[in-house]
Write a structure and sequence with these properties.
InterPro entries: 5peptide_repeat, Pentapeptide-BTB/POZ_domain. The protein has seven helices and four strands. The protein is elongated, with a radius of gyration of 40 Å. The two termini are 68 Å apart.
C-alpha cells in the first residue's frame, strides 16, 4: 500500500532545498557583486566629498545587507521560517494521506472479509464448507496482505469465532458443521498455554456433536443446551464453563481442567473424566449413568445435591451426589 512521505524523507527534502537555495544565493553574489571603489582624490569641493562619503556609506550598508554576517543572519531566519512552514505543510499532508490510504485499505479488507462471511450463508453445502475453511485460515494465520493494526486484527479474529459459534446453532448439514468445529479451534494464541483460544464464547444451542476440541481453552464459555454428544474435550481447560442442560452423552473430558465448571442438569451418560481435575465442578441434577471418573482429582469437592443415575436418564434414580461419588470410587 502506498503511503505519504515519512518524516525523515520530509526533513531530507527540506534540507536539500535549503542547500540548493544557499548555493544559488552564494553563487549569484560571487558572480554579480563587483568591487566598487569610489575616491575623492582630486576633488576639492567639500560638498562633493560629503556626497561621495554618503554614497560610500550607503554602498557599505547595501553590501552588509547582501553579503555580510547580517545578511546570513537574515537568511537563516528566512530559512527557518520558510522551512518550518513548508515542513509543517508536508507533514500535515503526509499524515492526511496516510489516514486516507489507511481508511481505503480498511474498506478493502472489510469488503473481502464480508464476501467470505456471505459465502457461509450460501445455498450450496460446498460453498459453506469452503467459506468455513477460509475463515479458519484467518484464525490460523492472519493474512499478511491485510495490513491492519493489532487491535483491528484481534477484532477480526474474535468476530470470526463468534460467527462460527452462531453458525453452529443454525447450520443443518452435518458435514458443514464438522468443518466449522474443526476451523473454529485454529486460533492457537492462548496466552497461558499452548491451547486453542475459545475463551468466553457464546456456544449456547450449538450443535457440535462429535467435535474434536482437545487442547482448547473454553474459559467462561457458555454451552447452555448445546448438543455436544461424543465431543472430545481431552486436555482442555474448561474453567468456569457453563454446560447447563447440555447433551454431553459419551463426551470425553479426560485430563481436562474442570475447575468450577457447571454441569447442572446436563446429560453426561457414559462420559469420561479420567485424570480430570474436578475441583468445584457442579453436577447438580446431572445424568451420570456410566460416567467414568477414574483417577479424577478433587472429586470430593464436587457441588450439587442430587444426580440422576438411571440408564434412561428419566430421573427415576436420583441419589445424593455424595453417594454417587462413593460408588464411583469403589
Amino acid at each position: 500500500m502506498e503511503k505519504g512521505l515519512s518524516q525523515s524523507s520530509i526533513i531530507m527534502l527540506i534540507a536539500m532545498l535549503l542547500a540548493v537555495m544557499i548555493a544559488v544565493i552564494y553563487g549569484v553574489q560571487y558572480f554579480i557583486d563587483p568591487e566598487i571603489s569610489i575616491t575623492s582624490e582630486g576633488l576639492g569641493d567639500r560638498k562633493i566629498e560629503y556626497e561621495i562619503s554618503k554614497l560610500v556609506a550607503e554602498i557599505s550598508r547595501i553590501r552588509s545587507d547582501t553579503a555580510g554576517s547580517l545578511f546570513w543572519l537574515k537568511l537563516i531566519a528566512l530559512f527557518v521560517t520558510v522551512g518550518g512552514a513548508v515542513g509543517g505543510y508536508l507533514i500535515g499532508q503526509s499524515y492526511t494521506t496516510d489516514k486516507k490510504l489507511s481508511f481505503e485499505h480498511r474498506k478493502d479488507v472489510d469488503a473481502a472479509y464480508q464476501s467470505i462471511v456471505h459465502e457461509l450463508s450460501a445455498d450450496s453445502q460446498i460453498l459453506r464448507a469452503a467459506a468455513a475453511v477460509k475463515l479458519g485460515a484467518i484464525l490460523k494465520s492472519f493474512p499478511v496482505e491485510w495490513d491492519v493494526g493489532s487491535k483491528r486484527r484481534r477484532q477480526i479474529i474474535q468476530l470470526t469465532k463468534q460467527i462460527f459459534a452462531a453458525a453452529l446453532s443454525i447450520e443443518a448439514d452435518q458435514k458443514v458443521r464438522k468443518t466449522i468445529t474443526i476451523n473454529i479451534a485454529l486460533d492457537a494464541s492462548d496466552e497461558n498455554e499452548n491451547l486453542s483460544d475459545l475463551r468466553e464464547l457464546d456456544l449456547s444451542g450449538a450443535c457440535g456433536s462429535d467435535a474434536y476440541w482437545a487442547r482448547c481453552d473454553f474459559f467462561e464459555t457458555d454451552f447452555f443446551q448445546a448438543d455436544l454428544g461424543a465431543t472430545s474435550f481431552r486436555r482442555s481447560s474448561l474453567e468456569y464453563a457453563q454446560f447447563r442442560e447440555a447433551d454431553l452423552q459419551g463426551a470425553v473430558f479426560d485430563e481436562s481442567k474442570c475447575v468450577e465448571t457447571n454441569f447442572t442438569s446436563s446429560d453426561l451418560r457414559r462420559a469420561t473424566f479420567v485424570d480430570a481435575v474436578l475441583d468445584g465442578a457442579n453436577f447438580d441434577q446431572a445424568k451420570v449413568f456410566g460416567v467414568e471418573v477414574r483417577r479424577a482429582k478433587s472429586i470430593k469437592n464436587l457441588k450439587g445435591h442430587l444426580v440422576d443415575c438411571s440408564a434412561e436418564g428419566d430421573g427415576s434414580i436420583l441419589v445424593p451426589i455424595e453417594k454417587w461419588i462413593e460408588g464411583s470410587e469403589a
